[in-house]
Amino acid sequence: MCGLGKASTLGLDGEFLARVRGQVDAWSAHGALAELVALFGGELPRGAGLQARLALLDEFSEVWDSRGRARALSGEPVQCQDAGGGARWLIPHADLPAGQLETITELARQLGLTTESRPRGTAFDHILVIGTGRYSNLLRARWARELTAGRQIGHIVLAAASRQLLRSEDDAVAFCAPGARTEFELLAAAAADAFGLDTRQAARHARERVDNPQRDQMVWRFDADSNNLGVPVTLLEAPSPDPDNRRATSADTFTFTARTLGMHGSTCLLVTGQPFVPYQNFDALRTLALPFGIDVETVGFGIDRYDGLAELDLQHPAKLLQEVRSTIRAARTLLERVEACERMVGAQH
User: Of 60, 210, 229, 277, which residue is the least packed, with the fewest Cβ within 10 Å?
Assistant: First the structure.
């Protein structure tokens, strides 16, 4: 489904699809990406079409897939993308010369993975923060709070994936949400910190229920009087569509949130950390803009905000390379959806 049945009201027409295609083309043809590929011994053929370019990039980017290698070496059944040492925060430092590491960081900066980005818009129906691991929930929620200043916001939404927290998060959990067992509780604590909400009842409910990891779901609403911004806030927990094999991805969380809250045709500011902006933006275009007609803008806080946290939280070059791979794969999936929508537009005309 691409949402084109409402093209006249939601703007999902050929012109919009061309703009989305243009975003994918511009990012994947960026000179910094070609330089990264060359730095690791690869080469993109000149003149390759967008689809072929993304396929070649996807295949080549396996060299940057630290998470996949960790899972393969663990031998554990994959019940979560983070299983077997595959969590993003467990990616080890790259064993490369200092000069090459500096080059990677600079090229990642050029690709939009390191430096803070701020919204162009001044009014949004929704600010959306999706859950993550360790301290990043707190950083995302605080950044979202900062971005409300001077902007008209209709609704603040924080959505976590249904997953149990990992042992490698224990130190961050002890600081951010002592006793928390799930990502929902960690994100609820971040919401309390950033927006002054009383989330104790929601957290208590999550802790007292019988855990059904990767299948659990919850919707917890706070009215405008619950915080000093005077804006309604919703906390959600999103189940996985394939709970026997994995937790909900960011794309799954986007879809669950949009359907649950009826976000069709709205405007949305997606707030994350900058290393995740390119890939989450492509995922949001695929899962929010195309099916629901949501006008999405994605921004992130700079990687300097991880300074002073634990070593696991620092955004070093190997982590940035992993996010380049995530962006390539998100771009490829988005292009497939765009092409399906283009065929539908063509059939309508």
Answer: 210
